[in-house]
Amino acid sequence: MSRFKVEETFKLDGQPFHLLSGAIHYFRSVREDWEHKLYNLKALGFNTVETYVPWNWHELREGQFDFSGNKDLKHFIELAQSIGLYVIVRPSPFICAEWEFGGLPAWLLKDKNMKIRTSDPVYLEKVNNYYKALFKILTPLQVDNGGPILMFQIENEYGSFYEDKKYLKALKDMMIANGVTVPLFTSDGAWKQCLDAGHLVEEGVLPTGNFGSRTDQHFDNLEAFMKKHNKQWPIVCMEFWDGWFNRWGDKIIKRDKTDLAEQVKIAVERGHVNLYMFHGGTNFGFFNGCSARGTVDLPQITSYDYDAPLDEAGNPTAKYFELQKMLKETLTNIEQQDPITHPSIAVTDIRLKDKVSLHNVLDDISTITESLYPQSFEALDHPYGYVLYRTEVKRSIDEEKFKIIDARDRVQLFLNHQLKYTAYQQEIGEEFTLPLEEHNQIDVLVENMGRVNYGYKLFASTQYKGLGQGLMMDLHFVNHWKQYAIDFDRIQKIDYTRGFVDNTPAFYRYEFNLDEIADTYLDMSDFGKGIAFINGFNLGRYWEKGPIVSLYISKSLLKHGKNEIVVFDTEGKYAEILSTRTAHKNILLEKE
Question: Is 239 a catalytic residue?
Answer without folding.
Answer: yes
